[in-house]
Amino acid sequence: MLLRCLRAELVKFRRSPVWLAFVVLPLFPAFLGTFNYLGNLSVLSDAWYSLWSQHTLFSSMFFLPALLGVFCAWQWRLEHADHNWNSFLTAPVPVGDLCLAKLIWAAVISLLSQAWIEVLFIISGKLVGLTGPIPPELPEWLLCGALGGVSVCAVQLYFSLIIRAFAPPVAFGLVGGIAGLMVTAQGFGYAFPYSLLCIGMRANNPTMGLNFAAFLLSAFVYTVVFTLLAVRHLLQHDTAAE
Prior knowledge:
Elements: H1 2-13, H2 18-24, H3 27-38, H4 47-81, H5 85-89, H6 95-127, H7 138-162, H8 167-185, H9 193-201, H10 212-235
Helix pairs in contact: 1-6, 3-4, 3-6, 4-6, 4-7, 4-8, 4-9, 6-7, 6-10, 7-8, 7-9, 7-10, 8-9, 9-10
């Protein structure tokens, strides 16, 4: 059943304009971070690590939460906009599989976004003339960023489910990204889902140590809790009201 749900979701967004956001939005932190790096070479002297700090400062706070917010809001848009709830909730598949399929595709987007950020980071480094070795920690930063992004997706999917309009959940993602950086700066990053994106990518601090146990536990708890909340909401949903 889950595979059928995954295929159905793929059919829905395969030719969707949502892919434009996936391609375009990561370009902005790459440009902004690179120009910020070039403008502060007297201070940012740690080559690839300094460049990464500038790229992730913008991407983890603004553009990645917005990208994930757009994708998650779009995943529920067909049900909201086309009044498709009767067919959605009466489909011969468990509601949990329907929610899990959306989460899995959102997780795929989170991982692909990190891969695209990696490509842009390496290209930017070569363009500005960095010749040293690429940080060996880069795969860890990207993977942890993707895992943090999954917890963000779980939260965004829940709010995109309960809020029918498209824009408010996206705005919520932007506010969450900014709040995540602020919460991280106060030392409470592991307790806030949007902070996990910053912490996982080592935003603005590539040498920061990561408490893997706390990071993984927090990401797991937020993902499970908000997915269960979404399932609970759907189980209590009145199809006749649609």
